[in-house]
Amino acid sequence: MAEPPAALNSGHAIEFAPGVHWIGALDPTLRTFDIILKTANGTSYNAYLIRGSEGVAIVDTVKASFSEDFFARLESVASYDEVKVIVLNHLEPDHSGALPELMRRAPNAKLYISTRATSMLKALLKPDGERFDYTTVGTGDTVSLGDRTLRFLHTPFLHWPDTQCTYLEEQGVLFSGDVFGCHYCDARLFNDKVGDFRFSFDYYYAHIMRPFKQWVLEALAIIEPLKLNMIAPTHGPILRDRPRRYVAHYRELSSSSLAGRISDDERSLIIFYMSSYGNTARMAEAIATGAEQVEGVRVSLYDLEGGEVEPFVDLIEEADALLFGSPTINGDAVKPVWDLLSSLAVLNLVGKLGGAFGSYGWSGEAVRMIEDRMRGLKMRVPLKGVRVKLIPSDEELAVCDTFGREFALELTGQRAGGKVVDMADLA
Known about the structure:
Elements: H1 5-8, E1 14-17, E2 20-22, E3 25-27, E4 32-33, E5 37-38, E6 43-45, E7 48-52, E8 55-59, H2 67-75, E9 83-87, H3 93-96, H4 99-105, E10 110-114, H5 118-125, E11 134-137, E12 142-144, E13 149-154, E14 164-168, E15 173-177, H6 198-209, H7 213-223, E16 230-233, H8 244-254, E17 267-273, H9 279-292, E18 297-303, H10 309-318, E19 321-325, H11 335-342, E20 353-360, H12 366-376, E21 386-389, H13 394-411, H14 423-426
Parallel strand pairs: 8-9, 9-10, 10-11, 15-16, 17-18, 17-19, 19-20, 20-21
Antiparallel strand pairs: 1-2, 2-7, 3-6, 4-5, 7-8, 12-13, 13-14, 14-15
Helix pairs in contact: 7-8, 9-13
């Protein structure tokens, strides 16, 4: 069904289901998206046109700089006075860039957005004070094109608060917005024709959807019961071959694998450390020993000198609590610790327990800096971190042991509220 690449470059719409056309744009030379995402294969800005017996609907538009391609493809299959419905599943500029001009060209159209999108519409699309009439919709709301029905699904935080999906009931096509998408530009357009995009699909999930796993699972609960003949996202290939396997893969990516490896009544505590002369390492071992005294806590100890950051991110996501140990060098925590902490922005760590410890020679700022970073990630830091000047004594290692035990008790809800001594306070 896919047309050759030449057709895509000629400004023609591509029909991929009866009366349903791709009218988007290709951006093959893009190499960075939103600063943080690498796009080795560029991306596509997918927009769609649906023809019903009583008018035409447009689902999403394109980045403003690609508007010419979008309008040329739209005009190849419809006139603007036929457009009755415009749906924006997500208002980010790469999807809404052509909206102001489309609204001007299609004055008979009514705009449909999610209930959470109104403030974003005002912020993103009114630079010159223009006003748009719109209707807000939520899960279960529908709009009719005569013999075609569009049903809206509220799927917030995937990956903005305003996101929704739109489902073409009669043909089982889900216009999914960013969900099930990826930055992968291929003029062959369909998942059964393009190159191998598995890496791009998983990479996109990891950087866009992963922080919102709970919202992904809530969206899947709405999507999984649907008849799914095709999934049409706003970036990347249209998923017409076995679309349900991508839904199943999203559930797999969003579900905890740790739950199958430890018992339901166990809690996972991971201790990461970096040590210059072995002092912080000794503290880490003493803390681990203390934590292991508390029944129901599984303790894992990792030396950051011996591992890459990326696999640790997966461990952190499923752990219940984290401790970071670092010496203080030049008034700062060491780089491997910061590298790991900075990588955690892709995770949802809200409410997860955290703590810090470390040896130092002069001022010992590392522990406080690590704690501040964890609080910035909305983690809970219930105990004041342990700092030891230079080589820890037996007494100081005993304090580390107590710190570990108290932290584990906090993790299991058994801690009475005692105070852990910072040896630096006694100096």
